[in-house]
Amino acid sequence: MGRLDGKIALITGGARGQGAAEGTLFAAEGATVVLTDVLDEDGERTASAIDARYLHHDVTSEARWRAVVYEVVGWFGRVDVLINNAGIYHAAGLMAATEADYRRVIDINQVGVFLGMQAVARPMIEQRSGSIVNISSIAGLRGGGGSIAYTASKWAVRGMTKSAAVQLAPHGIRVNSIHPGLIETAMLHQLPGIDAGHMEPWLARIPMGRVAEADEVAKLALFLASDDSSYSTGSEFVIDGGMTA
Ligand SMILES: NC(=O)c1ccc[n+]([C@@H]2O[C@H](COP(=O)([O-])OP(=O)(O)OC[C@H]3O[C@@H](n4cnc5c(N)ncnc54)[C@H](O)[C@@H]3O)[C@@H](O)[C@H]2O)c1
Questions:
Q1: What does pLDDT average to in each consecutive run of 10 residues of the chain (245 residues)?
Q2: How far are the Cα atoms of 23, 88, 128, 190, 210 from residue 81, in angstroms, in the given order?
Q3: CA-based diameter of the chain, in Å?
Q4: Is 53 contained in some domain?
Q5: Distance of CA 204 to the CA centre of its chain
Q6: What's the rounded Cα separation, in Å, for the pair 100 and 52?
Q7: pTM
Q8: Has residue 106 been placed in a domain?
Q9: 57, 151, 187: which to mutate for ligand 1, most atoms within 8 A of CB?
Q10: How many A from CA of 13 to the centre of ligand 1?
Q11: Which of 23, 85, 137, 142 is paired with 215 by a 20 to 30 Å CA distance?
């Protein structure tokens, strides 16, 4: 018996990285999975490998959010899980970031999560159940000079998670955030230093001395998506090898 048997799960940014790992694990645990992304070739390939469906979906578009949720509910009659995973990193601190850079990161990482929660809340309220998991970061728990926009967006995700959790709890819907540290995906290799192949200074800041694989985050997302986390809502779940300890 799978831990997500009978559940319909929608995962944004599911073409690769953590979203793909979550899709793979969720499908293995019995969920019907719909992956969305803007990387259509990768998205189609990932979806076909796990017998999932794929939809083109830019998370900054309210119209696309409405269409995607309409399509999922049309196919399966419900949506039980949303993993708001799509995101971008932009390495620029306060003095280097342009207004356009800042707005782009906020649009995808923050507005995208807001639109997603709003879009699935409607069917979830009707069905009186659901689990929303928002992927923040350890950048949403503390400061860091590397990327002002990314840090701002991930703090916003943490705050929105709590606000939505309070509002949606009476409807049987749980909302939690995941705060990964360094995870081995394409995004990791955009971090200052790692982009030039210098991993050691970053590893020295991680008590466990290693980065995580994407499927380690997927296991935490599985817990939050499933009924195993039935009494958790509005909470932060950190997965960082002790980096913020
Ligand atoms: N990798 C890390 O070390 C790390 C650490 C903390 C948090 N995170 C967060 O984890 C999440 C997943 O990232 P990842 O590590 O798998 O990196 P990734 O770059 O492999 O995956 C991000 C995915 O989001 C998609 N995406 C980007 N813009 C989009 C848009 N406008 N609409 C729809 N999809 C879009 C990308 O195409 C990509 O498939 C992100 O929210 C990221 O901020 C990553």
A1: 97 98 98 98 98 98 98 98 98 96 98 98 98 98 91 98 98 99 97 92 97 98 98 98 97
A2: 11, 22, 13, 29, 30
A3: 53
A4: yes
A5: 26
A6: 35
A7: 0.98
A8: yes
A9: 187
A10: 6
A11: 142
Tokens describing residue 122: 């409607």
Give the tokens for residue 97: 């970031």
Residue 128's nearest CA partner among 82, 174, 165, 84 is 174
Question: In terms of DSSP H, where are the helices of the chain?
Answer: 17-28, 40-49, 62-76, 99-105, 112-127, 148-168, 200-203, 214-225
Q: So which residues are the catalytic ones?
A: 150
Question: What is the C-alpha to C-alpha distance for residues 171 and 143, in angstroms, rounded to an integer?
Answer: 34
**Angle (nearest 5°) at CA 87 between 86 and 92:** 175
- CA separation for the pair 24, 33 (Å, rounded): 9
Residues forming a β-bridge with 54: 35
Q: Whose CA is nearest to atom 21 of ligand 1?
A: 17
H/E segment holding residue 55: strand 53-56
Question: Residue 56 belongs to what domain range?
Answer: 8-238
